[in-house]
Amino acid sequence: MQISELVRRADVPLATVKFYIREGMLPPGRSTSATRAEYDEKHLDRLRLIRSLTIVAGLPLNRAKKILAVIDHPEGTIYDMLGRAIEALASSNPSDESAGDETNRYPRAAAALAALPPTYNASNERMAAFAQLDEALLAAEEAGIPITPARLRLYGDHIMAIARAEIDGMPAGDPEAALQYAVLGTALYEPILAAIRRLAHQNLTVNAR
Amino acid sequence: MQISELVRRADVPLATVKFYIREGMLPPGRSTSATRAEYDEKHLDRLRLIRSLTIVAGLPLNRAKKILAVIDHPEGTIYDMLGRAIEALASSNPSDESAGDETNRYPRAAAALAALPPTYNASNERMAAFAQLDEALLAAEEAGIPITPARLRLYGDHIMAIARAEIDGMPAGDPEAALQYAVLGTALYEPILAAIRRLAHQNLTVNAR
């Protein structure tokens, strides 16, 4: 198809499509003349994926790019790739410079790890989610409602059961599909979980009236 | 204390304190002369609460105001108040105008409700979280990873167990403290849960390598 049809079917502006090509996020079409190029269904799929990552999941461009890079350069097992993709999703990344003293840099997350079930103890300190946890714990502390070890344990147990079902549900056999599912699922099922938690709170308070 | 001390201890700029007073979010001090007013610990607590709601929890001003109004005008049981506060927290509110046809307005949330455990069935349609759930389900659907009824059931079970512990953990006896705990907890423990979920994903993928 020509670029005009690609634009129409993907529902993405022409300037944006050209921008993605310049940024290396979308491969250029196959040149058929000096001024024309041909695009196919793979381009359309890719555009839809970029749209999901940036517009639907709301990821900034540099993080969307990192995730595309993981998909484009499959290295190691699907689990290695998954680890790198989840790492790219996180809002704050532990810098490599001060590797080794994460316990000092993220004291709240380090303390929380001791309260979480033992399943959580595999080399967490180097993970991006570790910095994110520390930040979230600090915010609760500043608001005067620090979380208790008992609550952390409870959260940890239930969330691990949820995460296990999510990882088990990955499409098998197709690494690219598995990665897309994992990355989009992490980002897009989060608001679903948050909404269900609010519904649960409301149900419990209604029933207690 | 004088306003300069209040500003210093609360770590909020003077102009912001004056703005909160004008907006009726913070009561004015007790006038001691034509140009001076006296503030006390209650003003300090209130400023810290406003700071938690707006800066730490990131709520827009109009929603923070609604929550303060619930705290300032205690009506009904603590559970009634809690319901109103959680309602004010939600990002989108079902409007009253078209009350009654929420199933049509939020078809995805309505379908999800049928898949969730029966604990979730108490008059959910009128709740703010219902609109939020519908929006989140739509985003996942648009990205090509619609959620399955089995996954919803699993999420619903674990999240209900989490929500039950949260509601049970409310400070008893002091309605104002209970409300603050509930509102801040809903907003501030959400990022903690999200970070733990990412840690869980990373642990599961590391262990599978």
UniProtKB/TrEMBL annotation, chains A, B:
PROSITE patterns in the record: HTH_MERR_2
Pfam families: MerR_1
Keyword DNA-binding: yes
Ranges where the HTH merR-type domain occurs: 1-70
One GO molecular-function entry: DNA binding
Keywords linked to the UniProt accession: DNA-binding
Membrane spanning stretches: none
Highest taxon above the source species: Bacteria
Name of the protein: MerR family transcriptional regulator
Source species of the chain: Mycetocola zhujimingii
